[in-house]
């Protein structure tokens, strides 16, 4: 009912007669139930090219296809510890891993120790802060996605009391130093790392291609920027390295559109992204080192340049499809769809 309410109250929606006609057209033309019509805002007046957007089935076929993504590559993208070790070995910019755990077993400084109580874990975290001269730690679940299982630990008694610390003892987590993002991006939103999502494709000849790029933002006090955690995203003009005009929230979270960040009122249009060309160069290097078919890379921008957060084989193509006005018209996406078995 919430989604229906979002649609009916959207001031940008087309006339209901037009909506019904377009739904029938897509049903006949694409021979599938056009559930993407609402998720991708095709019902809004400014969207004319409704046939250029990927269907829900096409998104699933690309995102979950083992045809493009090799089984041998999966550990690099589905296990954050493996990615951290890979980046360290190859001297790639990545947040420093301070420790990781599998349940009560914690790996730190080349040793494995057993910790069974939250109190002892807090003591370990305090020790890590002292040894590394840090006031904040960032914790991630090793095998989760969408910002789930991520939280900050600050050097304060209130922070050490948060329930998530106790939950670490029954899960698998990675503890890292916090990324300090570039001041130009903190000006947009200082509460989360505003990461760049870049979708890449390695073709049959082994040549890597950057398909799309967008920037994700958290809202309020959220420490994560994932759209699937309530944030939103803004497309990037690949040639200029600047933000596009409009930010968009996922339909399931309300579908709000933004021309400026709601917390800082900073306007998006033509906002320059620091180190964007260097970011693209880093992505091309990653495609050579990990030549998997279709990957969504998350990159943070620091004062020293781009820093790898992680790679995802189940990339959120939905966001790119909306930001770029329909990927069915994209030459490389046509190639991707034609290669699917």
Q: What structural keywords apply?
A:
D-amino Acid Aminotransferase, Chain A, domain 1; Dna Ligase, domain 1; six-stranded antiparallel beta sheet; 23% strand; alpha+beta; single chain; seven-stranded antiparallel beta sheet; globular; 13 strands; 341 residues
Folded structure, characterized:
32% of the residues lie in helices and 23% in strands. With 341 residues, it is an alpha+beta fold. The chain has three domains: 2-53, no CATH class; 71-79 and 182-339, D-amino Acid Aminotransferase, Chain A, domain 1 (2-Layer Sandwich); 97-177, Dna Ligase, domain 1 (2-Layer Sandwich). The strands form two sheets. Strands 11-10-9-8-7-12-13 form a seven-stranded antiparallel β-sheet, with helices on both faces. The protein has a six-stranded antiparallel β-sheet with strand order 3-2-1-6-4-5, with helices on both faces. The longest helix is centred in the first third of the chain and has 15 residues, at 16-30. The model has no long low-confidence stretch (mean pLDDT 92). Residues 61-325 form the Alpha-L-glutamate ligase-related protein ATP-grasp domain.
């Amino acid at each position: 009912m919430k989604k229906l309410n979002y649609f009916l109250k959207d001031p940008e929606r087309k006339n209901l007669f037009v909506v019904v006609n377009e739904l029938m057209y897509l049903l006949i033309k694409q021979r599938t139930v056009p559930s993407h019509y609402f998720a991708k805002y095709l019902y809004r007046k400014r969207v004319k090219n409704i046939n250029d957007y990927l269907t829900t089935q096409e998104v699933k076929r690309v995102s979950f296809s083992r045809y493009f993504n090799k089984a041998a590559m999966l550990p690099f993208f589905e296990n954050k510890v493996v990615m951290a070790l890979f980046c360290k070995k190859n001297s790639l910019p990545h947040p420093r891993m301070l420790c990781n755990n599998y349940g009560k077993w914690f790996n730190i400084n080349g040793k494995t120790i057993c910790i069974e109580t939250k109190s002892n874990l807090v003591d370990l975290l305090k020790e890590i802060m002292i040894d590394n001269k840090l006031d904040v730690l960032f914790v991630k679940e090793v095998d989760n996605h969408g910002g789930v299982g991520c939280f900050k630990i600050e050097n304060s008694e209130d922070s050490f009391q948060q329930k998530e610390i106790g939950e670490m003892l029954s899960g698998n987590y990675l503890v890292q130093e916090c990324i300090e993002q570039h001041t130009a991006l903190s000006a947009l939103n200082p509460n989360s790392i505003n990461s760049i999502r870049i979708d890449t494709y390695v073709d049959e000849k082994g040549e890597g291609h950057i398909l799309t790029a967008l920037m994700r933002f958290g809202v309020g006090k959220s420490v994560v920027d994932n759209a699937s955690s309530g944030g939103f995203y803004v497309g990037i003009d690949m040639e200029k390295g600047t933000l596009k005009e409009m930010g968009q929230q996922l339909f399931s979270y309300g579908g709000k559109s933004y021309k400026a960040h709601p917390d800082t009122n900073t306007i998006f249009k033509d906002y320059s992204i620091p180190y964007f060309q260097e970011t693209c160069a880093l992505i091309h290097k990653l495609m050579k080192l990990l030549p998997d078919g279709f990957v969504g890379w998350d990159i943070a921008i620091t004062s020293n340049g781009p820093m790898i957060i992680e790679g995802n084989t189940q990339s959120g193509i939905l966001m790119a499809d909306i930001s770029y006005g329909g990927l069915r018209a994209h030459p490389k996406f046509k190639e991707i769809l034609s290669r699917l078995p």
